[in-house]
Amino acid sequence: MSRRPLAVALVHHPVLDKRGDLVTTAVTNLDLHDIARSAATFGVSRFYVVTPVAEQQRLTARLVEHWTEGHGASYNPDRAEALGRVVVIATLEEALQHWQAEIGSTSQVWLTGARCHDGLELSVARQSLEEQAALLVLGTGWGLAPQLFTDDRRTLKAIRGAGEYNHLPVRAAAAIMLDRLCGETL
Fold it and tell me: Which parts of the chain are beta strand (E)?
């Protein structure tokens, strides 16, 4: 299968906490490394880390720089390759603008969440990548805020496991979705 470019955005604001309040979450080193490595494994072009908090932007940029230009780059070149996909950016809208400018065309936007039961099947999304690039949007905390779900953005159907429990860590959900969108078919 030949596919169009795919990017991932990990949104830290606006997201919800467990009470449903609008919050900003902190960027975590584990999410940064693991999602970047999954992105590299599945041929994702860009990994946007979305946070409006200047200190979080500086910290994330410093971590990325260590692994792409500093001692970490020579110590672990594979990590440098993965983290070289990271772009730290303030808003999802800016991420989409950056992505579309980079690819020179419009992009599908796919929102995700554990409570998205009526969304687009991942198999259908995979097929649509043959025609148009996409930005896969993941939320931190307890999920993306409602205001991100607009008419021009598609929602992907939630990943379902064997039982009723359904609260995957975002880095696990990212790996599963990227495998289903870009991995080998069985």
Answer: 6-11, 15-16, 22-23, 46-50, 86-89, 108-111, 134-139, 154-155
- Structure tokens, 186: 């069985």
Q: How far apart are CA 43 and CA 40, in angstroms?
A: 5
Residue-wise pLDDT for 6-43, tens only, equals: 999 999 999 999 999 999 999 999 999 999 999 999 99
Q: What is the CA radius of gyration of the chain?
A: 16
Ordered alpha helix ranges (H), 51-155: 54-68, 71-75, 77-83, 92-103, 122-128
Domain that residue 108 falls in: 6-53+86-182
- Whether 33 and 159 have beta carbons less than 8 Å apart is answered as no
The overall pTM is greater than 0.90: yes
Examine residue 74 and state whether it is found in any structural domain, yes or no.
no
Counting the structural domains of the chain, the total is 1
Name the 3-class secondary structure at 69. Answer: coil
